[in-house]
Structures are given as structure tokens and as C-alpha cells.
Amino acid sequence: MKLFLIGMPGSGKTTLGRELAAHFGVPFLDLDAEIVARAGQVISAIFLQHGEAHFRQLEADTLRDISAQPGPMVLATGGGTPCFHDNLTVLNATGVTLWLDVPVPVLTARLAVAAEKKSRPLLATSGPTEKWLRETLSTRTQFYQQAQLRCAADACNTEAVAAQLAAAGIAVS
């Protein structure tokens, strides 16, 4: 089974994804890293040179290629991935989606580090982080809520997710 992690920037998709993949003994992929490898540019450069629309198309194309690969995996998506190009339908049709539902104050604290903001193009130009996070979460929640599973911040660790998957009868490995 494929496990796709969705949620806001700073929700821990990459960190938890690596841990879950190691726990289940399956490959881990980070969608943003895959996009960078294919484009030969960091995401901020893609945004700057080609714009968000180009990035979102590249993201959708990369997602479709990855989701069509055989075998189990854990994939950390970008925060906006489920919100564009019918990507959420692709994710739900080819694997299990898990929304990492982290409160805005926690996201704000995690993303307050200058290096984090600089590496995330939408945050780098958006002004105050907490305001941007609240507004963005407000528009993205309609997509995130369509995930098959949801994990709240306080309980979102490898053991809790493994138990949630087992309770739902989902085997990742």
C-alpha cells in the first residue's frame, strides 16, 4: 500500500514520512525533492523563473508518475499538492491519504526559523507567517478533510499512525 502524507507546511510530513517508511520497511519519497531532481532547480528558483502555475503542473506530473509506480511507499507531499490539478483524487485512488492536522501556533513556531521561510517560496513572500498560515489553512482545509485518515498534532507519531493504520485494516508493507 502507498501512504501519502498531506498537510500544511511545517506539519511534519517529511520527518514523520521518513520514520514511517523506516518502521514499515518501505521506500520514502519526498515530492518536493523529486520535483527538484526532475527540474534541476530548487523550488524557489522554479517559482521565480517560471511562476506558481508552472510549478503546480510540474508537481501534478511528478505526482502522477510516482503514484503509478508499483509497490508500497510513503510519500510526503507538498502542502498545496492536494489542492491543485485534481491531485487529491489521484492520491485517494492510488493509496491511503493521511492528513497531519497541526494547529497554526505549532506550525508558526516550526516555520519561524529564517532558513525554513527562505526555502519555502510561498512563505518567503507572504508577510507574517501566522497570518499566511491561517488564511492558507482556511482555503486548504476543504481538501485536507477529504483525506482517508487524519492525525492530530499531539498524537501524530510513528506508533500512533501505525496503530491507526492497523485499526483501519491498512497494511503499508
UniProtKB/TrEMBL annotation:
Binding-site residues, substrate: D32, R56, G79, R140
The protein's annotated pathway: Metabolic intermediate biosynthesis; chorismate biosynthesis; chorismate from D-erythrose 4-phosphate and phosphoenolpyruvate: step 5/7
Chain sites annotated for binding Mg(2+): T14
Annotated compartments: Cytoplasm
MF terms in GO: kinase activity
Keywords: Amino-acid biosynthesis, Aromatic amino acid biosynthesis, ATP-binding, Cytoplasm, Kinase, Magnesium, Metal-binding, Nucleotide-binding, Transferase
Keyword Transcription listed: no
Record's keyword annotation contains Transferase: yes
Residues the record lists as binding ATP: G10, S11, G12, K13, T14, T15, R120
Cofactor note: Binds 1 Mg(2+) ion per subunit.
CC cofactor: Mg(2+)
Coiled-coil annotated spans: none
EC number, UniProt record: 2.7.1.71
Catalysis performed (reactions): shikimate + ATP = 3-phosphoshikimate + ADP + H(+)
Similarity comment: family membership: Belongs to the shikimate kinase family.
Complex and partners: Monomer.
Protein role: Catalyzes the specific phosphorylation of the 3-hydroxyl group of shikimic acid using ATP as a cosubstrate.
The protein's name: Shikimate kinase
Gene name per UniProt: aroK
